Amino acid sequence: MTPVLDTLLDTKLFITLGLAAGLPVAAGLSIQHQMAAPQEPAAATVTIAPRDFSYRMAGDFTRAGAVADAPLTQHRLGKSVTIMKSQVTAAAYDECVQARACRPLTQVQPPRPDVPVVGVSWEDATAYARWLSAKTGEVWRLPTSAEWSFAAGSRARTETIAAEGRDFSERWIAKYEQESERERTADRTPQPIGSFGVNENGLFDLAGNVWEWTDTCFTRQALDAQNKPVGPATVNCGVRLVEGQHRTYVTNFIRDARGGGCSVGAPPTNLGFRLVREDTRLIDRLMAGLRRMAAPFSRLA
Amino acid sequence: MINRRKMLISAAALSALMVAAPALAQDLPGLARVKVDLVAPPFVHAHEQATKQAPRVVQFKMDIIEKEMVIDNDGTKIHAMTFNGSVPGPLMVVHEGDYVELTLRNPDTNTMAHNIDFHSATGALGGAELTLVNPGEQAVLRWKATRPGVFVYHCAPGGPMIPWHVVSGMSGAVMVLPRDGLKDEAGKPLRYDRIYYVGENDFYVPRDENGKFKSYGSAGESYPETQEVMRKLIPTHVVFNGRVDSLTGKNAMTAKVGERVLIVHSQANRDSRPHIIGGHGDYVWETGKFNNPPEKDLETWFIRGGSAGAALYTFRQPGIYAYVNHNLIEAVELGATAHFKVDGTWNDDLMKQVRPPEPIGAGDKLGALSPATGSHNH
After folding, report:
1. Any chain B CB within 8 A of the CB of A108?
2. SS (H, E, C) B57-88
């Protein structure tokens, strides 16, 4: 079964179960959850309280039919963000593989507990989040671009090539030169956790040699002179935003974004991820319970 | 495991068959002699495009250097064998009727015997039979440039050493220009403002049981497993200028709108098909021989393994161009991609983005009709 189909089927299954189960079953699950044995502690996290931060909006933007810079906004998330301090490790991912809830890696990597897993697609990261949620009874998911940027703080990349008012080719060359600045010959080998330092929020290895998946879909949006959206956005969830040394969009099932080739640009060196944990509310516990019930059916053959 | 002694013995046996090394005496007293310093590709040493001078002896010197080289962004290393320290070796430019006089040195820091086979030269296996030098030796070869064109040269030290040395980096190219320069099909002069030499190499690097590329303590140790991969004929890397991304990013080739750029492309071992994404070949000597009229307006041209070709192109739009081997698997997955960064002013007449990507139907309000709603032509 292809990963795409698997995800679709799993979603379908989840919805079907939810509908069929109704409230009484859900309540039963909730009780089951409370009675379950104590869960293993999940990965170390930090919780960051809401505050204003500078956020370069994700997506491609146009104004009056011409390319526009992504607006830089003062943003505030509605609630605090609880996020893993480090990227998901090779050992942690391997555990999910052993449980047959995650696909084995294509590029063999020793399952070290101190090195981030690399060569994972958005689908792999999502499967891992689903498995971890089922395992812990908590709700784990990929961060949105805004959550990642907020947690990354000073390590978030907010620069842009001043796109507006410039000849198309000048803009293109400027972008090319900016990307060329990144050293492509740097060691690709994933480094032990902490090798790329810690940010002001206590998060390790942001913008190191492992880029991180987010849940944010590609969007294209027309703006007016005041940066207000004009008309509907084009949203494509077949590709997701990847954050790191630079922002880019990568197709969901891609595990290794290198290549370059005709699409002239510098791709992420490695693809990895870290997860956020939702505040546990009753509804979340119910959802997690349902997911746990659905999980055995979604395991890979 | 290679038996290095056996290899050296076979090299020595070949040496014994060689005629005596040519004397260093200047035996063409009537001709001017000029020494030219070679430069590493993709650049080309200064030269006249057409010349009024009488034929002369052009002296080059190349050191063969065996060294480890990184060939991709994963740090994969091969024990490269190089002409003058670069993969590919440098482009040598002379004019028809000139004599090329090469001093080929094999320093004693090397471990193997090497030589050079010039496809542009006549006799003695392209000079290979007269130039086989062991570590610590040198030889001087002179050949007359009788045929105008771009030609491959490569190492050919005998038997299975030949393909191995070639796919370890030992190839380069010679350009023999007509004395009155390049011409179009009507005999009108064609000139270039810039010249780049893009040498393409195929590498065959063994992998370990985990699929990772292996490295070896010496060229000799790498040989048996490399030969196994070579025999399957599927390269692990196909690259320009010696490594993946050698001619991209900060090392992208540059040009300006309106400049005429001559691109010499060689492949000593395997077929290739250069293509400029977003551009063309205005005049292309696909087989690389200047007595044949150039073809015009090509999209892709074929470089036969063991040959060089030349394409002349005037960039008409600024921006980034990818210069690829248009087997796109080789270009993108295996590395055969270079970039041109071209400065200048965009020409809306040649191309314009009439509407940027936007939701289907959004442009209709602004006058652009979709196929579903009708046509401008009626």
Report:
1. yes
2. EEEEEEEEEEEEEECCCCCCEEEEEEECCECC
Q: Answer yes or no: do B328 and A262 touch at CB < 8 A.
A: yes
- Tokens standing for B154? 């490569």
Q: Place A169 in a pLDDT band, splitting at 50, 70 and 90.
A: confident
Q: Which candidate from B249, B319, B353 shows the least CB-CB separation from A184?
A: B249
Q: Which residue of B has its CA nearest to A223?
A: B358
Q: How far apart are CA A71 and CA A74, in angstroms?
A: 10
B308-326 pLDDT, tens digit each: 999 999 999 999 999 999 9
Task: Kindly state the tokens that stand for B206.
Answer: 């063994």
Which distant-in-sequence residues (6+ apart) come within 8 Å of B270 by Cβ? B200, B202, B235, B238, B305
* pLDDT class of A3 with cuts at 50, 70, 90: very low
Determine how β-strand B295-298 pairs with β-strand B281-285: antiparallel
Smallest CA–CA distance, residue B368 to chain A, in Å, is 13
Q: How far apart are CA B358 and CA B239, in angstroms?
A: 37
CA separation, residue A159 to residues A69, A153, B169 (Å): 10, 13, 41
pLDDT tens profile B335-362: 999 999 999 999 999 999 888 888 888 7
Cis peptide before A268 (omega within 30 of 0): no
Whether residue A261 and residue B331 make contact (CB cut-off 8 A), yes or no, is yes
In angstroms, the separation between the Cα of residue A273 and the nearest Cα of chain B is: 21
Record: contact A234-B356, CB cut-off 8 A: no
ipTM of the complex: 0.77
The predicted-structure confidence for B60-69, as pLDDT tens digits, reads as follows 999 999 999 9
The token pair at B50 is: 């057409």
Minimal-distance CA residue of chain A relative to B352: A168
> Which residues have a Cβ under 8 Å from the Cβ of B82 and sit 6 or more positions away?
B64, B65, B66, B67, B69, B89, B169, B170
DSSP state of A141: E
What burial class does residue B16 get, using C-beta atoms within 10 Å of its C-beta: 0-12 exposed, 13-18 middle, 19+ buried?
A: exposed
CA nearest to B104, candidates B27, B56, B157, B148: B157
The pTM (predicted TM-score) of the whole model is: 0.80
Measured CA to CA, the distance from residue B132 to residue B280 in angstroms comes to 41
The burial class, CB within 10 Å (0-12 / 13-18 / 19+), for B35 is exposed
Q: Residues 119-158, chain A: which have Cβ within 8 Å of B?
A: none
A231 to B362: CB separation less than 8 angstroms, yes or no? yes
Q: Is B356 on the interface with A (CB under 8 A)?
A: yes
DSSP string, B199-226: EEEEE---B-TTSPBP--SSHHHHHHHH
Q: Which helix (H) or strand (E) holds A214?
A: strand A211-223
Residues 6+ apart with CB under 8 A from B361: B370
Chain mean pLDDT for chain A: 79
Asked whether A93 and A117 are in contact (CB, 8 A), the reply is yes
Could you tell me if A193 and B263 are in contact, meaning their C-beta atoms sit under 8 angstroms apart? Answer: no
Residue B273's closest CA among B230, B314, B321, B309? B309
Q: Which residue has the higher pLDDT, A31 or B103?
A: B103
Residues of B in contact with A63 (CB under 8 A): none
CA separation, residue B166 to residues A220, B111, B163, B180, B268 (Å) = 49, 16, 5, 33, 7
Closest-CA residue of chain B to A235:
B359
